[in-house]
Amino acid sequence: MSRLRLNTLHITNYKNVLSASYSFDKPIHCFVGNNGQGKTNTLDAIYHLAMGRSYFSTINAHSINHKADFMRLEGHFVREENTERIECQLKRGESKIFIRNAKKYKKLSEHIGLLPTVMISPADVDLINEGSQTRRSFIDKLIGQADKTYLNQLIDYQKTLQQRNALLKQMGSFRGGANETLAIYDEQLIRYGIPIYEARKHYLAEFEPLFQSRYTTISGGKEIVSLNYESQLANEAFGSLLLKAAQNDRAAQFSTVGVHKDDLVFSIEGYPIKKFGSQGQRKSFLIALKLAQFDMLQQSTSLTPLLLLDDIFDKLDEQRVAEIINLVHESSFGQLFITDTHPERTAKVIEQTAKPFELHHL
To answer: Of the residues 89, 190, 337, 352, which has the maximum number of CB atoms within 10 A of its CB?
Structure first.
């Protein structure tokens, strides 16, 4: 099993980090300092280089410091003993440029999966509290880093869906050929949607026991939790669904059926965790999800992903922090990046791992 490693990081005008450079030669690196000093944004810069976008926003302009006209990130990673020099450039009002080893990517999707990375953040509570789109995004990141075919099918499906929705909005005034064009889009949705559904079903079936194992470890096996994949395609053929929904789609002016409606249902003792889980149970559930994501990526890519932990010591009780630190003892984990506001607390906790670490004061 090869371990992914980040050797150096250079940041310019990324959010509130105006200029910073780091060398990482230890297994564990901790960014410590007061709130507002750029700890989370430094961690996000690593994620951005690995995944092609910020963890916290899909809007490119939000990545540029509000007093600057551009931002630049550069990282030197080691993947299977090969050095990967990754650079991200973004000027305000222009498209993002991603460069690998001095060669510009034609499509950003080509980069996804090269540097498998998992981030655990307080923002992950959105997986429980927000709508199904947030959970589908989690599924897509889980599979997309390991399966390039899935990622391309997903891109094609979303493009077709946008075109179909645009046609549905125009059909009231559309003259001639609308039904024929809609039928073409339906065929394309079926072509891309069925493999997406099958991939999600396959990967989530393998993911679920990994999640169960992680939750049992973190919680001490005190309660029964579950995650269930729900899809309209589970009970009826996609073509039949589209045919039955045709009238509703025209009235609503958007596509009401398809894999873009899939969801993950999170439960504890048979009840929705959003309503019936305690704060501690929800935190344990989320951490188990992300650590299982780590396990799944490691299995799927034969690479040990980077693990980024944002502000977890402030948000978790000592027992859950201890469980996470115990996991770091495992040989399966590679390079770890942490943020915290208390350097003494961070050092005390990390010392328990008996692994070399470095504090970076911001």
So the answer is: 337
